[in-house]
Amino acid sequence: MQERSRVTVDALLEATARILVKEGFDQASTNRIAELAGVSVGSLYQYFPSKEALVAALIDRHNEEVMQAVRGELADAVALPLAQGVRKLVTVAVEAHRIDPKLHRVLTEQIPPLGRLENRENFNRQNYALFATYLERHRDEIRVADLGLAAFVCVTTIEALTHTAVLHQKIDSDDAIEALINETTRLVVGYLIPQSS
Amino acid sequence: MQERSRVTVDALLEATARILVKEGFDQASTNRIAELAGVSVGSLYQYFPSKEALVAALIDRHNEEVMQAVRGELADAVALPLAQGVRKLVTVAVEAHRIDPKLHRVLTEQIPPLGRLENRENFNRQNYALFATYLERHRDEIRVADLGLAAFVCVTTIEALTHTAVLHQKIDSDDAIEALINETTRLVVGYLIPQSS
Amino acid sequence: MQERSRVTVDALLEATARILVKEGFDQASTNRIAELAGVSVGSLYQYFPSKEALVAALIDRHNEEVMQAVRGELADAVALPLAQGVRKLVTVAVEAHRIDPKLHRVLTEQIPPLGRLENRENFNRQNYALFATYLERHRDEIRVADLGLAAFVCVTTIEALTHTAVLHQKIDSDDAIEALINETTRLVVGYLIPQSS
Amino acid sequence: MQERSRVTVDALLEATARILVKEGFDQASTNRIAELAGVSVGSLYQYFPSKEALVAALIDRHNEEVMQAVRGELADAVALPLAQGVRKLVTVAVEAHRIDPKLHRVLTEQIPPLGRLENRENFNRQNYALFATYLERHRDEIRVADLGLAAFVCVTTIEALTHTAVLHQKIDSDDAIEALINETTRLVVGYLIPQSS
DNA sequence: AATGAATGAGTTTTCATTCAT
DNA sequence: TATGAATGAAAACTCATTCAT
């Protein structure tokens, strides 16, 4: 029955996430994962051909969750004028990072590359390209020589600030979030639209 | 003889760095490290109580190297007016990241935390504090409400941009470096000193 | 319904044979066998109490096929005079080995003994006894001291030559078969009836 | 120290041989082998990169033992006239098979191929070639059309008879050995030199 | 101090078999 | 009866660490 399968797979992914967060990648042995999931190791290997595949599936699931939460808002942002658009993007980035931030951290910081490395760079390249397109649309408002470079600067900055703030508990109240969004927006918008006299 | 000790320790650290960079943390077994260093595993354990301690020593050595290269320039920067000071800081950050960037990457991305995590956060906190002090000195030129938050924003931004640029080969020529420094400086200075009329 | 049973059993045996030949004993897991047979593992265990029993059944089926092809001709052989009888036996042996030789090879070379070993020896003993009886009938033409020993020599020799020739591609044309039969016959007959002056 | 290593390696090979003989290839797990050898699994893998390599080394050792026992006598045989030469060869073959016959059996019957298969065929091809050369030297005494085919027939026959006799306890006394050698020699010589008028 | 052989707990993975549906 | 998800003992193999020499 398919229901039974799904329950098992979910339990395995959930257990993997939990152990990864609590004990780090090194302690996450397949036997421990299976045990915590309440199934046998055999079942783990029935659904995932290797430990690597299991972790990859978890990454995919996490990315999917993030994307789902973000996709709609991202579309909105693109339609807004620059200053509001950037604020929206920053807000979305914060939201994205607040979905299971500890898991996000382990997944980005501790998983050994293999095929992953390529993926992460691709992911970033996509972000750069997306943002570059957005900038293109507002080219006349912007004062930067190299749009590609500007996209790199903005994306990297937003990502770093939201990531670091969320993970290192810089954010512990709605006010703190608000402040972070304000500052980040001002930083990026000030860079894109120098308001010099 | 102390000389012999130092040679052995250096060889071990060097071997560790080389294997870490070439093959990643997973392949870096103590036996392989000792072999590449030209000593026996026994000797490795004569000088380092555990693998973790060995890696920690390597991190320390790398940090020391970076600090040594940077300390003087950092002192200079503090004495400069804001715009030039920030440019100096960014330049120094780029330089720092160009010291064995591959090792830097492995050390920051692949080493499992353990006691390390604390250290890294401490390291960052130090940077924040340092920069906050610097901002304090230029408080009257600056238009930010929360100096601590501003320090966090600036340090995180500079760190992220230089780190990412170096590691992802955004930097492959002197012109590219120049451009990155320009943009980063403009980003940060524009944030600290909004030139709005 | 008994029909359905037979179809399932046949499919299982066929699948076992195919996997055994294509991938060797080690790769022949019961799950793979069931899948190739188009039934569930559960069904496999409905008809065979264990993997061993399944393989045993396959061996029996193969032996049965060989016997069926051979029984008639064997009876003929016994009625013939010695020289022609031996030639007939050799011919029959070649034929027997040409029934799915790859399966024969796997079955004789790769299957771990267990209860099988006994069987194989029994099988051989039967052959010895049969041939000894045949020799008995032609005792006066034969110049050997120990009929039992002679039977062992002849049976082993014929078996080895036909087996090896078929498996190691010594036989790839009708001429080659003819030649092999000639030589083997001459070898055995020359041994049984020394034509010394 | 090299002495310590050799002792360990020998113990491992010896344990492998014993388990292989007593319990068959399937029961011969590396942990059981190490245990019986009185060393840890780790030591096993210090000297042999895989279970396969361990078994390969055992095969090599066995072959070496056999070869050492046989090499000298083989050289003698080549110098003898045909009838005596063949007898010598058969005697040597029996001797060879009496060196740890049970191990020989497991090694030839139960070890899954992999790289081995090729080796075994090569080994046989060498024997054929060697014997063909020997026959060449006595060409004028021999009455066979195809020397290569004759070599195949003789080598296969001698090998099969001695192998089977030794393994299936056809040989349990010096008289039995004598008888087997006599019969085999007569079989082969009769084939090579038909003494028909 | 140095060596490197030895250790053994722990890891990933497989597969014959069972049993709830 | 048939299904196939689930089981779990056991296999091959790794590697940080120890210790006799």
Outline of this structure?
The first copy, chain A, has 197 residues and is mostly helical.
CATH topology of the largest domain in chain A: Tetracycline Repressor, domain 2
Distance between the termini of chain A: 70 Å
Describe the largest sheet of chain A.
none
Name the largest protein-protein interface in this structure. A-B, 37 and 37 residues
CATH-level-2 architecture of the largest domain in chain A: Orthogonal Bundle
In quaternary terms, these chains amount to: homotetramer
- Name the overall outline of chain A: elongated
* Helix content estimate of chain A: over 70%
CATH domain class of the largest domain in chain A = Mainly Alpha
Residues in β-strands, percent of chain A: under 5%
Overall pLDDT score of chain A:
89
Question: What structural keywords apply?
Answer:
homotetramer; 197 residues; mainly alpha; Arc Repressor Mutant, subunit A; Tetracycline Repressor, domain 2; 9 helices; DNA-binding
Describe this structure in words.
The structure is a homotetramer of 197-residue chains. With 197 residues, chain A is mainly alpha-helical. Chain A has two domains: 1-48, Orthogonal Bundle (Arc Repressor Mutant, subunit A), CATH 1.10.10.60; 59-192, Orthogonal Bundle (Tetracycline Repressor, domain 2). Chain A is built from nine helices and no strands. Chain A has helices spanning 2-27, 30-37, 41-47, 51-79, 82-97, 101-109, 116-137, 147-167, 174-192. In chain A, α1 packs across α4, α1 (2-27) packs across α6 and α5 (82-97) crosses α9 (174-192). The longest helix of chain A is centred in the N-terminal third of the chain and has 29 residues, at 51-79. Chain A is elongated and about 60 Å long. The termini of chain A are far apart. The mean pLDDT of chain A is 89. Chains in contact: A-B, C-D. Chain A binds chain B through residues 24-26, 109-110, 112-113, 121, 124, 144, 146, 149-150, 152-153, 156-157, 159-161, 164-165, 168, 170, 179-180, 183-184, 186-188, 190-191, 194-197, and chain B through 24-26, 109-110, 112-113, 121, 124, 144, 146, 149-150, 152-153, 156-157, 159-161, 164-165, 168, 170, 179-180, 183-184, 186-188, 190-191, 194-197. Chain A binds a DNA duplex (21 and 21 nucleotides) through residues 1, 4-5, 8, 29-31, 39-46, 50-51.
